[in-house]
Design brief:
Structural class: mainly alpha
Helix content: over 70%
Mean pLDDT: 87
CATH architecture of the largest domain: Up-down Bundle
Strand content: under 5%
Number of domains: 2
CATH class of the largest domain: Mainly Alpha
Shape: globular
CATH superfamily of the largest domain: MFS general substrate transporter like domains
CATH topology of the largest domain: Growth Hormone, Chain: A
Radius of gyration: 21 Å
Number of helices: 19
Number of strands: 0
Order of helices and strands: HHHHHHHHHHHHHHHHHHH
Length: 423
């Protein structure tokens, strides 16, 4: 009797190695993309960029990223998840290294755009590979651990990049940032090798579909999938609200609540810790409760709305209250995402896992673009942070309603399991 049939949740050393390989591969993608925000004030001064020019580097990275998230997912399904993970990491190294030699605005902008193109396939390829290495009974826990790299990426890049740039120059900071994906690439080449125990393409019929389906047929199947449509709507609403609020929270805490920048930073650090705990716990919970992933994600998502309302109405002279509501917003805005990211791969036919993730990620990015602008427009129109946050709090509630109607695809859930047991 297999360990899984016996109810054991023991992961092999190889599974841990693959999980670490995927974790660091996605981690360096976040470090390279976030490095510019940390270094922008120093580079702007050195190269005489305006604030608008510096900010455009962020924008053009995400334009490039959005362009390749869906094609990257399709290629991952066609060519293999490992190949696309390694290609993305290699691209991060190449274009981050080129950033060290930028001489002016246009060369740097070009490299940032190319860095975005290289980073686009990373999430879809990583999610496809993760579902090949972990069964449906424990892959949510694995994904909960995997997605923590997003929080660590923000912490790591801010820990070294500004300090190195101040003492040794911004080019040195970028060079160190470029070395990280090179080291990860070398590690991932070896860590991500081997036969995945739950690979759905072990099924001959699934493998044949991967080879014979045209790109247009793959797109049609995903774009007309009821669950993918729902998850895309959820992505715009919740991902938009999450990053819109995250980008505005420091300003809200200082300008509206009257705390110092240091106190706001402390509250945001707790926000990050709470989100980290929530992501891991949500994955573990999904693997241990008898509730569909869609329903569980919906109830976790529902926390986001009252948390935003509580933060908006938080008094300005109570640090305990600020910490409580900031922590609850962190849990509400990130906890559900562990499960929703997994659903993107599980609700589609098994040969289209990365395509499904890539398709939904396009809408996730759209939300990330639109909602900060919505918050800015609301603040300009009303002059009130409270009103702006209260309006945005409606978005995750609508996402909650949509998530109640998402159903897993049993074909995807069982395909790899059946094959693994058959070996």
């Amino acid at each position: 009797m297999s360990e899984e049939k016996a109810g054991m949740r023991h992961w092999t050393g190889k599974q841990w190695l693959v999980l670490i390989g995927l974790w660091v591969s996605f981690l360096v993608s976040f470090i390279t993309r976030l490095s510019w925000s940390s270094l922008m004030p120093i580079v702007n001064k050195s190269l005489h960029f305006t604030v608008s020019q510096g900010t455009s580097y962020v924008t053009w990275f995400y334009i490039g990223y959005t362009i390749t998230v869906l094609p990257g997912g399709i290629l991952a399904d066609k060519l293999g998840y490992r190949k696309m993970v390694l290609a993305s990491v290699a691209g991060n190294f190449i274009f981050m290294a080129l950033m060290c030699f930028m001489q002016g605005y246009w060369s740097g902008l070009t490299f940032r755009f190319l860095l975005g193109l290289a980073s686009g396939p990373d999430l879809a390829a990583c999610m496809g590979m993760l579902t090949d290495w972990f069964s449906e009974k424990d892959r949510a826990t694995a994904n909960g651990i995997f997605v923590t790299c997003t929080s660590f990426g923000l912490t790591i890049v801010n820990a070294y990049a500004p300090a190195v740039a101040t003492t040794h120059g911004w080019r040195m900071a970028m060079a160190i940032t470029a070395v990280l994906p090179l080291l990860v690439f070398i590690f991932a080449v070896f860590a991500l090798r081997g036969k995945a125990p739950y690979a759905v393409d072990k099924n001959k019929e699934v493998a044949k579909k991967k080879q014979t389906q045209s790109v247009w047929e793959m797109l049609r199947k995903v774009a007309t999938n009821r669950n993918i449509i729902l998850l895309s709507i959820i992505g715009i609403l919740t991902n938009g609200a999450k990053w819109g609020v995250t980008n505005w929270m420091n300003l809200f805490i200082v300008s509206h609540l009257g705390y110092t920048a240091v106190q706001a930073g402390q509250a945001m650090a707790w926000y990050g810790v709470a989100s980290l705990i929530a992501m891991v716990f949500a994955g573990w919970l999904s693997d241990h409760v008898k509730m569909s992933r869609g329903k569980l994600a919906a109830w976790l998502m529902l926390v986001f709305t009252p948390a935003l309302i509580g933060l908006a109405l938080c008094p300005g002279n109570n640090m305990v209250a600020l910490y409580f509501w900031a922590g609850l917003v962190g849990m509400g805005s990130f906890g559900y995402s562990t499960i929703v990211n997994l659903l993107d791969a599980e609700v589609v036919p098994p040969e289209l896992k990365s395509t499904g993730v890539g398709f939904v990620n396009v809408f996730n990015q759209a939300g990330s673009f639109v909602f900060p602008m919505i918050l800015g427009s609301l603040l300009t129109a009303t002059g009130s942070y409270v009103t702006s946050f209260l309006v945005v709090s409606i978005a995750p509630f609508l996402g909650f309603v949509a998530c109640l109607f998402v159903k897993e695809n049993q074909e995807t859930l069982s395909a790899g399991h059946v094959d693994a047991d058959a070996e």
